Amino acid sequence: MTTETTLSTELAAATGRRRTFAIISHPDAGKTTLTEKLLLYSGLIRTAGMVRGRKGGKATASDWMGMEQERGISITASAMQFPYKGAVINLLDTPGHQDFSEDTYRTLTAADSAIMVIDAAKGVETQTRKLFAVCRLRRIPVLTLINKMDQPGRPPLDLMTEVEQALNIHASAINWPIGSGSDFVGIVTRADNRVQLFSKTAHGGAAKVATETLPLTELGATGRVSQESLDQVQHDLDLLDIAGNPFTREQFLQGDITPVFFASALTNFGIESFLDAFVQMAPSPGARLADREDGADVSVSPVEIPFSAYVFKLQANMNPKHRDSTAFLRVCSGRFERDLVVKHHRLGRDIRLARPHSLVAQERSTVEEAYPGDIIGIINPGVFAIGDTVSLTGGFNFKPLPQFQPEIFARLRPTDVGKRKAFDKGLSQMAQEGTVQIMRSLHDQEALVAAVGRLQFDVLQYRLRHEYRVETILDALPFTCSAWLEGDPSTFKSPSASMLVKDQRDRVVVLFGDQLMKNIARDRNPDHVLRDMG
Ligand code: G4P
């Protein structure tokens, strides 16, 4: 074999092993717990409980925020890599709670699949819906994990229906729970009718557990299950066979169907079989669409095109002593090596990708090489903006990242009018980096700042103070949602408590007081389209 063939075989094999995904969930559904169990089952940590204990204030392996909290401000998410049974897993963090920001959404653009964690007692919650909408936009395949089966929850058929109706996707149960809450006995895998028996583990599932399995037909004789639970599970299974959606990988990969698994992350129950299924089902990095210089669409194959990547996230002020930020790049094709000199397409010049790093569990380490699907962090001395493409060949740009519907809006001004110039410079720099969106009133051109999470405003003010020496005053505006307007703005019938603005790309956006107003506007303007993502 020639060296070239060996290299391309190595690239294809490394790409085939990659699984790059994000967990989407509402706060408290169990994302952190599941992440720890991934680390536990990958062998990276031996005891899950040791790295947790947030209530005790200790750092957690998967709570990357510690580093950022040191600076007194928690900012954004990042990625970690670990091996799992022959696969190389890249887990992208999508922060929730107050840390929810546009970065959370953008991170999903770098994922090839997602795991949606749902609390069995709560069902589909708001943040899950929002994140799912981004997966839908990109047609990212989503696996569903219904968590906390060791606790009383809602009937499984209800949960399946809710997933289908709330998210407009077909759901296909891969396994099914037997009993619930204190009567939870285990799960039966539909493909082979084998039962995994649940046993409560000590210390919150700190260590791996071996699960006892047996055929469903033998479960009754064990005396561990009531006749009522057995009848119920048989009834549900029959119903699923007749009326349920059969799972096909093709439909899953197109984002039309989500496989559903029941589990309990805290007790490790059902987690290993879920992870095994995840590695089997989830796609390895595929081709990505880009715009060629002549405007035509081009598909960038991970193994046929030499190194290319794009910036999906910028993280500012990792080190308070320097102004540098870190740019996170998703490798889309080819092999990356440390100190590679690449073309920066927007700037039209060559740059060296020096000091690349990644997170392997909680350790920051230097990257010597990376493959499609991997995430690398590069120190950014102000050359990278969100969406930038870099490559060895040049000649194309990955499709621009969508802008997401902002939900909070404010007027921002410098306290000292003499600082106007520095203020304008800082604000436009940060809008370019994607920290916030800037919008201008159609009426009087006044600038507004817009974001999906409060944290983005905090970061904006913090950075204006520290990097541009400008103190600012932020006046919140009474809008809670927005939409991009397609159609003539002069004929758009605005409901009360709404406002028309333009975004950075000169597109018209309508800001609404609440969702109800947005719905009314949709009804009143059948000739206009109101889009949630731009
Ligand atoms: P998040 O990252 O999605 O916000 O959720 P996280 O994993 O932190 O879990 C939220 C709470 O739910 C935690 O309890 C966690 O222990 C619990 N939990 C997660 N998975 C399961 C499960 O399968 N069964 C049960 N019964 N509970 C589960 P906490 O009391 O808020 O925190 P902690 O004291 O355990 O850290």
Overview features:
alpha+beta, Rossmann fold, Elongation Factor Tu (Ef-tu), domain 3, Alpha-Beta Plaits, seven-stranded mixed sheet, binds guanosine-5',3'-tetraphosphate
Strand content: 25-35%
Compounds present? guanosine-5',3'-tetraphosphate
Rounded to the nearest angstrom, the radius of gyration is 25 Å
Question: Mind telling me which CATH architecture of the largest domain this is?
Answer: 3-Layer(aba) Sandwich
Helix content: 25-40%
Enumerate the strands of the largest sheet in spatial order, edge to edge or round the barrel: 28-25-27-26-30-31-29-32
CATH topology of the largest domain: Rossmann fold
Shape: globular
Tell me the structural class: alpha+beta
Whole-number total of structural domains: 3
Largest sheet: 8 strands, antiparallel
Name of the CATH class of the largest domain:
Alpha Beta
The CATH homologous superfamily of the largest domain: P-loop containing nucleotide triphosphate hydrolases
| Poorly predicted parts | 49-77
**DSSP, total strands:** 32
Description of the structure:
With 534 residues, the chain is of the alpha+beta class. The chain is built from 12 helices and 32 strands. Strands 28-25-27-26-30-31-29-32 form an 8-stranded antiparallel β-sheet. The longest helix has 17 residues, at 227-243. It is globular and about 80 Å long. Guanosine-5',3'-tetraphosphate is lined by residues 25, 27-33, 52, 54-55, 96, 147-148, 150-151, 264-266.
